[in-house]
Design goal:
The complex is a heterodimer of chains A (114) and B (113). With 114 residues, chain A is an all-beta fold. Chain A has no helices and eleven strands. In chain A, the strands form two sheets. In chain A, strands 2, 4, 5, 6, 9, 10 and 11 form a seven-stranded mixed β-sheet that branches. Chain A has a four-stranded antiparallel β-sheet with strand order 1-3-8-7, with no helix packed on it. In chain A, β4 (31-38) and β5 (42-50) form a beta hairpin. Chain A is globular. Chain B is mainly beta and 113 residues long. Chain B has strands at residues 3-5, 10-14, 19-21, 24-26, 31-38, 45-50, 56-58, 64-68, 73-78, 87-95, 101-103, 107-112. In chain B, β8 and β9 form a beta hairpin. Classes of the chains: A mainly beta (114), B mainly beta (113).
Chain lengths: 114, 113
Amino acid sequence: KAGVTQTPRYLIKTRGQQVTLSCSPISGHRSVSWYQQTPGQGLQFLFEYFSETQRNKGNFPGRFSGRQFSNSRSEMNVSTLELGDSALYLCASSLALTSRRSPFFGPGTRLTVL
Amino acid sequence: AQSVSQHNHHVILSEAASLELGCNYSYGGTVNLFWYVQYPGQHLQLLLKYFSGDPLVKGIKGFEAEFIKSKFSFNLRKPSVQWSDTAEYFCAIDLSTGNQFYFGTGTSLTVIP
């Protein structure tokens, strides 16, 4: 069974630009969540989608948005990029929004904002 | 607010030494507990998890963790580390409501051969 895939793996953008990251969950998984990982901050929750609906959202500005498609694939978008947005963006998938889920993580997209 | 604390930011051990990484959380209700590992250049992988039952859980690669409810702790242990255990370790909780995961800031473990 293929794991969680994320594209692209690396991105370099300049301040003010926007970026779209993609995540394909494990086949059959319907829940996709996104995290921002930075040194010293660990993983910070961005949002979670299930059945094309955003179920939870972390404390990030509105420049961060996402969506999920009917095939459970998800995208996240960051508009008006800032230097502080440089991070590893991780996607995780799980079967459902149950209380006993164990998310599987993708390799991440390394975003560098210059 | 819910939070997860990993007090050891960086740990350096020699091979064969014993390991204990601390993890404490703040939440008064029922939680599910996890340890994830991120080897250099690799993605996060699940080491072990606790949902209920025996508070001592065993995971992959000889790791184990003990849930002590009264101390809100879920410390990770390994009796004898290997060079290949060099990685970053993250503790996480998932509230029983299934709302979202909360991760600690991670502990970087370096094992010296």
